[in-house]
């Protein structure tokens, strides 16, 4: 067994087994409470800059396949579990998790006490850390962890966004219901979009064009889209000023707009609100959210480390529509007069429950009313 270590900036060091690729990776250490869906989590661009700890003790037992990815490659900086399975058992599996991580250069560690690690992160907050199978000196690893820049102030959108605009044509297959004839043209700002978001938009009858996050408003508006979509993504939303400025111009034109996760935060900032960093973030597939419009509770998939400050919404003409039942943070809002709304969580799931997929229909109805 090859030894690996995970060191946190507070001086805590966990020794375990090296898994995946060999080497060293640095990032913000967070925990995810989903029981399955590790492949979707690995390939979610919102995890750029982070080392993800899975609280479910056994990870990898159903292997990896080519269908369940949410982007072209894994984005996590590192991966942590209590025990990674080396022998998968699932008819859809095409390779082991070990082979997948090794192929994609993802450094991982298991055989550590993930309950103790998660408890430390929950009590003290997310911390920067280093996974290494190369350097096993505790003092050296802790020193490296202390030197990692804080997630606050980092623009990671520019590292995950697409490079050129392109129409979406992939992954709308007959076995998944196919795509109806397109009724609405949607301009999607890619901050690190998960593919299932675009799949659902396409299946709902949207002709989606994906744009880099830095695309100027006038470039998009020239195409006369019926709607604008702001995707999920990593890092601190407040420093993505180019997209915030773009959205201010688009809102003035009253184009129907829907935002998810980082897109929710960007939309709030464009309307004049403020954001703040959560203590340990929301990462998992079992977060209860109350829909204030009808009083129903949705179980949601979430992955974010920042939130919109409710106090900053005063006087902005915004109605809060969803709240997190665990900590009371804002999970969704809509503008009272502009055709714009958003949610902090992931209605497209992948992984997670489908309670919130009605929001895509809400977006369609908003575009239909403006057409």
Oligomer: single chain
Give unreliable regions as ranges.
172-176
Strand content: 25-35%
- Main sheet strand line-up: 10-12-11-13-14-19-18-17-15-16
Outline the biggest β-sheet: 10 strands, mixed
Give me the strand/helix succession.
EEEHEEEEHEHEHHEEHEHEHEHEEEEEH
Q: CATH-wise, what's the superfamily of the largest domain?
A: Class I glutamine amidotransferase (GATase) domain
| CATH fold assignment of the largest domain | Rossmann fold
Protein described:
The chain has 371 residues and is of the alpha/beta class. The protein has 2 domains: 3-146, Carbamoyl-phosphate synthase small subunit, N-terminal domain (Glucose Oxidase, domain 1), CATH 3.50.30; 157-370, Class I glutamine amidotransferase (GATase) domain (Rossmann fold). It is 23% helix and 31% strand. The protein contains 10 helices and 19 strands. It has helices at residues 38-42, 97-103, 114-124, 138-146, 157-160, 195-203, 217-221, 241-252, 262-270, 358-370, and strands spanning 3-8, 13-20, 24-32, 50-54, 58-59, 78-80, 83-84, 107-110, 127-132, 166-167, 184-190, 206-212, 227-230, 257-260, 275-291, 297-308, 318-324, 330-335, 340-343. It has a 10-stranded mixed beta sheet, with helices on both faces. Strands 1-2-8-6-4-3-9 form a 7-stranded mixed barrel. Strands 5-7 form a two-stranded parallel sheet. Strand 3, helix 1 (38-42) and strand 4 form a beta-alpha-beta unit. The longest helix has 13 residues, at 358-370. The radius of gyration is 20 Å and the shape is globular. The N and C termini lie far apart (62 Å). Residues 172-176 have low confidence and may be disordered.
């Amino acid at each position: 067994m090859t030894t690996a270590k995970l060191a946190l900036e507070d001086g805590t060091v966990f020794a375990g087994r090296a898994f995946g690729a060999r080497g060293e990776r640095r990032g913000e250490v967070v925990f995810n409470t989903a029981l399955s869906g590790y492949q979707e989590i690995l390939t979610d661009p919102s995890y750029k800059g982070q080392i993800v700890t899975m609280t479910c003790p056994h990870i990898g037992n159903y292997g990896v396949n080519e269908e369940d990815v949410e982007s072209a490659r894994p984005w996590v900086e590192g991966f942590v579990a209590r025990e990674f399975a080396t022998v998968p058992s699932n008819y859809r599996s095409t390779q082991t998790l070990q082979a997948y991580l090794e192929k994609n250069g993802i450094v991982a560690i298991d055989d550590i006490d993930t309950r103790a690690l998660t408890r430390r992160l929950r009590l003290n907050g997310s911390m920067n850390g280093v996974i290494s199978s190369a350097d096993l000196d505790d003092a050296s690893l802790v020193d490296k962890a202390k030197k990692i820049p804080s997630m606050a102030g980092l623009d990671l959108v520019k590292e995950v966004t697409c490079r050129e605009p392109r129409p979406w044509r992939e992954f709308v297959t007959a076995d998944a219901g196919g795509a109806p004839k397109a009724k609405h043209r949607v301009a999607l700002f890619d901050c690190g979009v998960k593919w299932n978001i675009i799949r659902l938009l396409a299946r709902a009858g949207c002709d989606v064009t994906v744009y880099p996050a830095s695309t100027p408003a006038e470039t998009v508006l020239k195409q006369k889209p019926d709607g604008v979509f702001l995707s999920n993504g990593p890092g601190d939303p407040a420093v993505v000023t180019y997209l915030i400025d773009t959205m201010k111009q688009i809102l003035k034109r009253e184009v129907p707009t829907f935002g998810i996760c980082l897109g929710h935060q960007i939309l709030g900032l464009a309307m004049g609100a403020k954001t703040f960093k959560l203590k340990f973030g929301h990462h998992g597939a079992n977060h209860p959210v109350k829909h204030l419009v009808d009083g129903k509770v949705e179980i949601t998939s979430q992955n974010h480390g920042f939130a919109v400050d409710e106090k900053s919404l005063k006087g902005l003409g915004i109605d809060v529509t969803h709240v997190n039942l665990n900590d009371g943070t804002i999970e969704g809002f809509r503008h009272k007069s502009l055709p714009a709304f958003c949610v902090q969580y992931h209605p497209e799931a992948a992984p997670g429950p489908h309670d919130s997929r009605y929001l895509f229909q809400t977006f369609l109805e908003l575009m239909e009313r403006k057409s």
